[in-house]
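Design a sequence for this backbone.
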């Protein structure tokens, strides 16, 4: 059972204003947190405060508003570095999100380090954002992208993974927590194995940050990508963690203002990391708002968070298993926050539409994991994904909604 009391959960939900509404005449049940989590009053107010009082460009001007903006911007960098266990704030590069962070590594590190015949290993359950950038750089360098198999439970086949490792492998990409199956991958083991043959490892932490506190130093991971909006922060902002010695050897990803030391028509020189990779005006309000979301995460008792979210997942699977015709997709022993399912002879989009008519928000489709869906032999799934503010009663509403689906489809 959850370690949270009813009063604590009530007070917690009150911090997220979007939850307090009706949709189609029913109290909203929001179970699409893997797509984006909701934002607290603290985040919303901090972003409003910035625009009302400090709105200025970061690192650009000598006036007070710019100084205050830069100070708040860099404070978030320090908070994030501390949260993930980075060695120093300069190992955190702000991006638009996980997608840009992965593209940064593929384009910058990949262009400098990959060549013909080199191999990039990616798990079969990867999001398109951790597949397509590697395919693009492979086309430009002659490298080869190879999929790591998964077993019927939706777990990485670790024996197959280890057998694929050789000195040809230069990069391993693995999602921390699968957005489509909920699998919590054994990233610590995979990092250690990859390093044994000299390969680098990028862990896609899009789903990880909201459900588990990563420790990038203890894991010895080379790159870890993050998305603010999937961890109670604003949209349009994320970050890349990279070991400083790797970042310092990587060429710029984009050119423009603030990433340079000196520009002339004869040539240019560049800033040290992280500013080398932060060309142009960043999302100041988003980064500063993210700082408030990190304060929220830091104030939680994480043993209770894990107990609460694990209880929701276990309860959801238990209840769905009782519904005739419903099949849960993915049975990994280690899983977090996501439960995907299908119903015999009912398309996932129809499931989502009928649930929406009852005020229940879920995700349907391939979840940007087309290779995985092809492997599973499915066009897509329906996905319920949980956050800290969800409660068991919302799982009950989901099951009741599925009863209506089954009634309509016979």
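Sequence:
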């Amino acid at each position: 059972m959850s370690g949270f009391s009813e009063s604590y959960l009530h007070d917690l939900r009150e911090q997220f204003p979007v939850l307090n509404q009706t949709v189609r005449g029913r109290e909203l049940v929001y179970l699409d947190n893997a797509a984006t989590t909701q934002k607290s009053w603290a985040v919303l107010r901090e972003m409003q405060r910035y625009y009302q009082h400090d709105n200025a460009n970061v690192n650009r001007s000598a006036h007070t508003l710019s100084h205050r903006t830069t100070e708040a911007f860099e404070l978030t960098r320090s908070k994030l570095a501390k949260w993930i266990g980075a060695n120093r704030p300069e190992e955190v590069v702000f991006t638009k999100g996980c997608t840009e962070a992965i593209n940064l590594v593929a384009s910058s590190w990949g262009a400098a380090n990959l060549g013909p015949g080199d191999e990039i290993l990616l798990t079969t359950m990867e999001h398109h954002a951790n597949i397509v950038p590697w395919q693009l750089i492979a086309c430009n360098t002659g490298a080869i992208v190879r999929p790591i198999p998964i077993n019927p439970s939706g777990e990485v086949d670790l024996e197959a993974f280890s057998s694929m490792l050789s000195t040809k492998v230069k990069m391993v990409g693995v999602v921390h927590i699968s957005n489509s199956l909920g699998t919590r991958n054994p990233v610590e083991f995979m990092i250690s194995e990859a390093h044994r043959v000299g390969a680098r490892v990028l862990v896609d932490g899009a789903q990880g940050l909201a459900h588990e506190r990563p420790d990038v130093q203890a894991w010895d991971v080379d790159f870890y990508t993050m998305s603010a909006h999937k961890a109670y922060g604003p949209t349009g902002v994320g970050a890349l963690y990279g070991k400083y010695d790797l970042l310092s050897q990587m060429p710029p990803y984009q050119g423009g203002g603030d990433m340079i030391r000196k520009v002339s028509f004869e040539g240019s020189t560049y800033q040290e990391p992280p500013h080398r990779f932060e060309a142009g005006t960043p999302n100041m309000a988003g980064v500063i708002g993210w700082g408030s979301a990190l304060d929220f995460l830091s104030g939680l008792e994480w043993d209770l968070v894990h107990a609460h979210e694990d209880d929701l997942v276990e309860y959801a699977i238990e209840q769905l298993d009782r519904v005739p015709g419903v099949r849960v997709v993915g049975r990994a022993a280690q899983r977090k926050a996501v439960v995907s399912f299908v119903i015999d002879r009912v398309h996932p989009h129809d499931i989502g539409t009928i649930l929406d008519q009852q005020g229940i928000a879920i995700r349907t489709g391939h979840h940007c994991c087309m290779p995985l869906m092809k492997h599973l032999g499915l066009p897509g799934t329906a996905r319920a994904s949980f956050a800290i503010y969800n409660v068991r009663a919302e799982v009950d509403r989901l099951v009741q909604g599925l009863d209506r689906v089954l009634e309509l489809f016979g």
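The longest strand covers residues 169-175.
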